[in-house]
Amino acid sequence: MASDMRATDPAASGPRTPLLEVRDLKVSFAGRVGFIAGLMGKEGLAARAVDGVNLEIFPGEIVALAGESGCGKTTTARTIMGLEKPRAGKILFEGQPLGRNLRKYRRRVQMVFQDPTAALNPRQTIYESVAEGLRIHGIHRSEDGSLSEEEMVARALSRAGLRPPERFFLLYPHEISGGQRQRVVIAGALVLEPEMIVADEPVSSLDASVKGEILSLLLQLRNDLGIAVLVVTHDLGLAWSIADRVAVMYLGRIVEIGPADKVLTEPLHPYTRALLDVVPEAGGIDRPYLQGEPPDPTNIPAGCRFNPRCPALADGRAKTAGVDQQCLHEDLELEEIEPVHFAACHLTAKLRELG
């Protein structure tokens, strides 16, 4: 459970208090039905996009939520922002559940979307795009009264690396580069002085030469302003570069979570190891690729949901360890295998038990 995954601050005498908690989150979408079945009023099977996610994010921490396309990571991020309605579970911010009125929460937790071109209104100037959040929340001056709207917009653009900021005020999105557009989107989040940013694939649409700049910017924001960041990504190489902790998702559930250096150098779950096989930073590329596609989320396998693709089952290692039937028939939760390093794997748990 989420409470079991609480990270410990070495400088503190006890556990830190999470800024945001996700508890047993479940999100489903109606599945497709055939034309005749639809006429008969039948409903399709529900696709379990998020199926019991537990996650904690602490102040000033960067967490990467990683996995293949379709694993549920973006749905998790959208639900955290209140853009999707959960079927079950809770989202807590500073210990309080999200209420119906999300306005105050969304001022403190901002989202940066994947495509900056789609996120910006082509008919609005850069100034108007960044100032929009202030106007939506009825903010005309900074909390201490020292800054006007124009000065707050300029400060946000400057923090996002667009200097001098006044040069961008009257430009339109098509007049600047893709990397600059992403910086404008980040400035639109920063102008509200948030405590947390949810970044959904923030560099996937950018050229390789610009990706490093945006990742460095996110790190700088964490270091300078103490902002917590949840980065949604399919790229473990990105997680390698930026994250304090990494949570790996598969078929709607987190299957491994822990400190980035541990998860990315000593992975405990076969799925994480397979993802690392194609990450150059982890010495991948020359190793075998993960075979097959994730199962249909309307028909999640019994037992470990990774068992249809698990190399340990395919090559007999699970059978040798005596856990093959558990893998096929027994569902499992995350278990703390190493200090603050959790995995949901029968084989790993058995091997650690045997020493």
Main β-sheet, spatial strand arrangement: 6-7-8-3-9-10-12-11
Q: Can you tell me the overall shape? A: elongated
In total, how many domains does the architecture comprise?
1
CATH superfamily: P-loop containing nucleotide triphosphate hydrolases
Structure description:
With 355 residues, this protein is of the alpha/beta class. The chain has one domain (2-354): Rossmann fold, CATH 3.40.50.300. The protein has helices at residues 35-39, 73-80, 103-108, 116-119, 126-136, 149-159, 178-190, 208-225, 236-242, 260-265, 270-276, 311-314, 317-320, 324-329, 346-354, and strands spanning 20-30, 46-57, 62-66, 88-93, 96-97, 109-112, 196-200, 228-233, 245-250, 253-259, 335-338, 341-343. The protein has an eight-stranded mixed β-sheet, with helices on both faces. A four-stranded antiparallel β-sheet has the order 2-1-4-5. A hairpin with a 2-residue loop joins strand 11 (335-338) and strand 12 (341-343). Helix 6 (149-159) packs across helix 7. It starts with 19 loop residues before the first strand and ends with a helix. Mean pLDDT is 89; it is low at 1-13.
Structural descriptors:
355 residues, alpha/beta, Rossmann fold, 34% helix, elongated, disordered N terminus
